[in-house]
Amino acid sequence: MSPLLTVSPKFRPVLDPGFVPAALWNRAYRAAVKRNGGPQLAFALERTGSVSVFHAAVLPHQGSNTALNLRYVERLLKFLLWQKGGHRVIVAGDSQTAAPIAGWLRGVYAPDGARAFDAHFLGEEVYGRPMAVEMTTIDQLPAEKEPAEPLGRHLDGYRIGFDLGASDRKCAAVAEGKVVFSEEVPWNPGSESDPRYHFEGINDSLARAAAKLPRVDAIGGSAAGVYVANEVRAGSLYRSVPRPLFDQHIRRLFFDLQEHWGGVPFEVVNDGEVTALAGSMALHDNAVLGIAMGSSLAAGFVTPQGGITTWLNELAFVPVDFREQAPRDEWSGDTGVGVQYFSQQAVGRLLAAAGIHLPPEMPLPAKLEQVQKLMAEGDVRACRIYETISTYLGYTIAHLADFYDFRNLLVLGRVMTGQGGDLILSGAREVLDAEFPELAGRIRFHIPGEQEKRHGQAIAAASLPKVGQAVPPANRNSQGTIHAIPQSRR
């Protein structure tokens, strides 16, 4: 497929000039639809207890328009699925348009289709059923059902908050709303096949924090991945754990930890939601989109009313670059998705283009540290990496604004640490001012301080549970082991 649509950005990433911003491509496509007219199309995404609906218009589905339409709807549906989630997709419209598009998308999301990873991950792994793509008419489209609920903001009592990333785990002890201890410990869960590694690592951090408190009233956590009612559904942190061990031990990992800590109130949610919560708490405002550029790209959303939704907000997998030969994500196999532009992976990918040569075997966190060191020394090569990411971000903010109603943008994570983070935000603002002035006037950046960047999520995570019956220190078991998990074979 070769979509015959070109865009001309006013800014091009200095190290990646071929970047095709999704925001500009979609605007060009919608302008073509407005000029030429075309039928209405809608998508309903069903998931447990929720339905999301998105309305669009496409070009007349014929001739050279066909390739453009398919490119548009494939990238659109990909974004919607990872933003909102769903195991059943209903394409609504007239039979001449919706039927062939739904049929084509069904093949794309088939077990041997181009988006087989997405279909399996979202279908079987997250929602426990095969992905389905169906067609209906507009008048038969299911009604939207988007529940939202309050999140966290409880800081009474003695609490522990943790945040689990792919390269480190952060933990904080909070006493009556005041942080009395915080730390981060390197770890590498993505390569560990033994569930004991995950339990003992998290438990170690909890024990370190608990030692700074007179008692533990509640524990809250955030982690990369998908969590439903504290149950682990999927996540890159556990990607090396064999499926039988995952189902037996990882799926209810946090229930085991709760039991291990005497049954105190224990809440775990996706790290992106806590990113947004941290911003909302700091700003004393809502309508917050939070993104964390770390080992991957995490995101979360606090609605204008102050609640969170049942959406996934897994922006690591959403398309942000529409060029045909965009960088490929090694996990999902797709090209042009967020993780390759806003994470340690992005920094690692841009090293060669910047002229920075580091040992291939050096881990990505160490490579990022080297780039940050060079940036602090005024190295122009490191500066170009951050300038490139800043251009990516400016255009991607506009893309996200097509799908999220936000007025506050919180940006944090390891990639944002140091002078490079300031350069990323200033460059993104420049793109917004020049290309999207209507957005620049209403979106406010929140630039947290260094401590908030590094530990804000763990602190906000501590506020997740409501305090219940406190467990006295004498009744806590913070040093035990899980006897049901087999010893490591390493």
Give a nutshell description of this structure.
With 490 residues, this protein is an alpha/beta fold.
Total helical elements: 14
Could you tell me the strand content as a percent range? 15-25%
Q: State the total count of DSSP E strands.
A: 17
Strand order of the largest sheet: 8-7-6-9-12
Q: What features would you describe in this structure?
A:
With 490 residues, the chain is α/β, with parallel strands linked by helices. It contains 14 helices and 17 strands. It has a five-stranded mixed sheet with strand order 8-7-6-9-12. The chain starts with 21 loop residues before the first helix and ends in a 28-residue tail after the last helix. The model is unreliable at 469-490 (pLDDT under 50).
